[in-house]
Amino acid sequence: MTTTQSSLSTVPDPIDVRSLRAVMDGRWQAVREDVRARMGERRMHPDPEWSMAEHRAKVGEHMRKLAESGRASLGFVERYGGRDDIGGSVTSIEMLGYGDLSLMVKAGVQWGLFGGAVQALGTERHYDRYLREIMDYRLPGCFAMTETGHGSNVQALETTATYDPDSGEFVVHTPTPSARKDYIGNAARDGRVAVVFAQLVTPGGRHGVHALVVPIRDADGRPCPGVEISDCGVKAGLNGVDNGRLSFDRVRVPREALLNRYGDVDADGSYHSPIENESRRFFTMLGTLVRGRVSVAGAASSAAHVALTIAVRYGLTRRQFAAPGAEEETVVLDYLAHQRRLLPRLATSYALHFAQQRLVEMLHEVQSGGTGDETAQRELETRAAGLKAVSTWHATGTIQACREACGGAGYLAENRIVQLKADTDVFTTFEGDNTVLLQLVAKALLTNYRDHVGDLDTLGMIRFVVENIADTVAERTSARALAQRLRDPDLEDPEWHRSLLEDREEHLLAGLARRLRRAGEADADPFAVFNAAQDHLLTAAKAHVDRFVLDAFDRTVDACADPGVAGLLGRVRALHVLALVEADRAWYLEHGRLTATQSKQVLGMVNQLCAQLRPHARTLVDGFGIPEAWLDAPIARD
Amino acid sequence: MTTTQSSLSTVPDPIDVRSLRAVMDGRWQAVREDVRARMGERRMHPDPEWSMAEHRAKVGEHMRKLAESGRASLGFVERYGGRDDIGGSVTSIEMLGYGDLSLMVKAGVQWGLFGGAVQALGTERHYDRYLREIMDYRLPGCFAMTETGHGSNVQALETTATYDPDSGEFVVHTPTPSARKDYIGNAARDGRVAVVFAQLVTPGGRHGVHALVVPIRDADGRPCPGVEISDCGVKAGLNGVDNGRLSFDRVRVPREALLNRYGDVDADGSYHSPIENESRRFFTMLGTLVRGRVSVAGAASSAAHVALTIAVRYGLTRRQFAAPGAEEETVVLDYLAHQRRLLPRLATSYALHFAQQRLVEMLHEVQSGGTGDETAQRELETRAAGLKAVSTWHATGTIQACREACGGAGYLAENRIVQLKADTDVFTTFEGDNTVLLQLVAKALLTNYRDHVGDLDTLGMIRFVVENIADTVAERTSARALAQRLRDPDLEDPEWHRSLLEDREEHLLAGLARRLRRAGEADADPFAVFNAAQDHLLTAAKAHVDRFVLDAFDRTVDACADPGVAGLLGRVRALHVLALVEADRAWYLEHGRLTATQSKQVLGMVNQLCAQLRPHARTLVDGFGIPEAWLDAPIARD
């Protein structure tokens, strides 16, 4: 086939796919290989003809098998039968994203959210009682945080847990319809207990949101007295997960039901906590639950890998329209328009995968090493929030592009893409709405990680910016930016690519700080100032994530010993970065970072890089290492 | 609520919603009101718990009701019981897009594609035999064009229809697996006959693709001898439509089965046609079938209207996070980020709706007035192709944005958005893949409508461009562009908005012509030149559609007698155009059409326009006039 001639360096050929896959598998390669060996021989994804009930039943079976495999115990403490391997547990969940996303979510609910909350917020008495039954799935449980009226603003939850010193019990209650727990995984069918987040009330007053273990079903599966359970019904996807709604009518649980690591109530009703400030306490509690966000980012990326693998394989066999004089029709991946649909997204999938690996390492280090380093914890929370937002949006867009690239065949359930699309759609919403998460990222950056991610107190943030940060940020930036502007760049230079992303992040952040300072002026309406800057805030957060992702990419390439693989990854990095710059080149033009000529050259270079990577497209999707049985789509067959 | 103060003119208040709705209903208001009156009282959209079989059965019932209503006959000729109202028939299909899109597609297959093909390609003998039974749904039929190996390049279909002079019959045959008819609506369950597109072969040779009426099922629903029928199975959506696959093993049909308006075979096997050139003949035949593309564009827009109505209503009741000092939490549509998700898309939905109305008028005029004016026919084809691509991509993006804007509630089937999303996903593919359609648009522009849309003969196009058009296009542009660049614009001026879109279209087209001329150079590889310019080609086509859409908007506003409505629409127009310019402002910067300062001002103006239209959001979605029963989503209740 004819491809555009390129002036850029070419990639060594052939590439050692095993070597590439080792880079992609990373530190938890053994966990990945274990999943492939134990589950990779049979089809995992749901039959599209299944009813919701059938899919739920099948996921239930798989859950029991997972429990038997021992991988469910990876993330739990060793002295209760766990394996103290937090990174491994998240990697295991990420691998399930290649199979059935309903199973991934159900496993995430049981062992990540529910089990993770018991472990992170509870103490020995809860470990003794629950951890083994959680790991082996004898005790299916729920993570009951979200309420119908309170999705993003969970600090304003309305459910109450009121301590009654006379009986030594908490009374868990749903005071209004908007306080109903909603979208709760494991609630509609399987859950026997729920970790319920509620406003803690003692005779001494209110103490903010805390979590309690509340039984919701008896051994026969009937709702416990006072607990009303309903089913959320059919969803776009993830119909193997039994999402439901829970309401509590003055349900009594013993005092010991309180997960009391960060706040406890004595028998006499007196409240005490190691963290004085109520808001800080709540966000410290939330911060320990970051694993869920990390898992969702990873599984979203896995789903995008499956879709890209199917679309690239089909794009390499599907032919349409003959070139002038040609006998055979042209392979569709030889069309520039088709390459542009798939290859920049493939490059970005690589970049996000390396960032995910880095994030999992950070998670593992922070959570294995105790809670000592507050800055590391907050950086972790910030990066988890940011990468979750960027990876899930990337998955949504990529799976959509793959569907369209596969035409009518892509629309048939048998070819898998539509299920991936339907399943992952909510990933941009759950575990934190992406828009809200990016605001939290921006806030963390503006306040230099002063607070835990999660607290979107606008006024407090603005005050802090006004008082502390703006000048520093602004000064740090200007010198670099100026130097950047004066450079005459080599458009192939990886360092120039890096400086484009770094400079944008710093400039956006400095400008944001300047804008928000106006909120401190005497006649300003802080909400109006904040709201008018909201798009700026989101852009700045996204720019930060882009830079973090590039850092992780460079770490990976630096550590790569195989020159062929490193060379290929260098081209992938260039396509990833230049596609980002291309998409946001208006910003670079507006701020004098690119001339009009350079900006047009960026477009041309993206085209050239697509042509360069086209011969390696199959190698790149093979690098994901998805078991063949999990790719069982007629259009993906070789 | 606090909104950013605006320097732009404000909209008169209150707006007369009935007056707005009359503008939106347009010329075929009576058809819209008839649909509302007859069907608007009951829920139309599918129950998410239905199996595929149940949904198909329900759509079958609705089809029979539609046939009884008489609206199915709108698009057919009067002397066979039709009503000769082509615009009305398309409007009627568009209205079904507010209800159940499976029904819309099934109706489109039966009365648009299948019935339309019989009427457009057949002659009196076919009308006599089929039209009444088609209209009253006694004869469910298929439009069997697409083959497994031939989606976009339908001129290369492999199915053959070989005339046998001895028996006076055609032998319809599927010679290879890739020649199997695929994704055919009405095939898996209901179809009794199919209009089969096949290469016509006579003893004298091959004559290109023609269509024949081929029985596929007998009266008892069993496949006819030699016809193999299979089911495409579950799809992402549209599961009320029975898509299937058809293969023919030397199936014999009488000579009269050939739809013989554009080519006929005498009993002795001699072929004759009013159109000598085989390719031109085929695309003339395809051109008569443009109604399907127009219908899909309209129905996609309808689905986007439903999603926007639900998301805007929810955005006006849902509250999250309190502003500093506020008692109540903030209504989410008061956040700039939420406005930016929904309001520019709402504005563009208005623009596309007016363009759709204009397109339907053109269709009605061309098809009611006979086939006299070739240029009008080709303009119609070009605009149908372009608007179909832009409207269906807009629908995909808008429904996705609405899903995310509704958070977890948007993911529940009960709130309708996910079904709209799943149903419309394939609209970007069927009735012409959007990427291919935009290439056809570019080709029509480059060759000044020399040929029918549909013929993507790269070499022929390039030759024609080289020989004829490039200079003219280039000259026409340069003078205007220069004048434009030198202007110091008023950023609120509608004329400036118009010139931004016009200038971009002309410049892109001229540049494209210059690039493609290189293909005429002695040592050039025409495919490589074409392929390298493919992204440029798509951008130019999109720019043309944007300008056509603006023309239609201005026609509508000019004809609007109500000053309040006209004022509101003026703001909607500004938001639509400036959001387009904002999205493509890199181009304007690269080509000196906007300074960096102006470009940043465009961003600010989009924010301001969002704030201005925020109080009118409910009015604007009420303007769509969707029956309340069809909006039956818990989150959309008042």
TrEMBL record, chains A, B:
Gene3D superfamilies the UniProt entry points to: Acyl-CoA dehydrogenase/oxidase, N-terminal domain, Butyryl-CoA Dehydrogenase, subunit A, domain 2, Butyryl-CoA Dehydrogenase, subunit A, domain 3
Domain Acyl-CoA dehydrogenase/oxidase N-terminal: 29-135
Domain Acyl-CoA oxidase/dehydrogenase middle: 142-251
Entries under Pfam families matching the protein: ACOX (PF01756), ACOX_C_alpha1 (PF22924), Acyl-CoA_dh_M (PF02770), Acyl-CoA_dh_N (PF02771)
Source domain of life: Bacteria
Cofactor(s) the protein needs: FAD
Domain Acyl-CoA oxidase C-terminal, first and last residues per copy: 502-637
Record InterPro entries: ACOX_C_alpha1 (IPR055060), Acyl-CoA_Oxase/DH_mid-dom (IPR006091), Acyl-CoA_Oxase/DH_mid-dom_sf (IPR046373), Acyl-CoA_oxidase (IPR012258), Acyl-CoA_oxidase_C (IPR002655), AcylCo_DH-like_C (IPR036250), AcylCoA_DH/ox_N (IPR013786), AcylCoA_DH/ox_N_sf (IPR037069)
Domain Acyl-CoA oxidase C-alpha1: 287-446
Alphabetical UniProt keywords: FAD, Flavoprotein, Oxidoreductase
Protein family membership: Belongs to the acyl-CoA oxidase family.
Protein name from the UniProt record: Acyl-CoA dehydrogenase
Organism of provenance: Pseudonocardia eucalypti
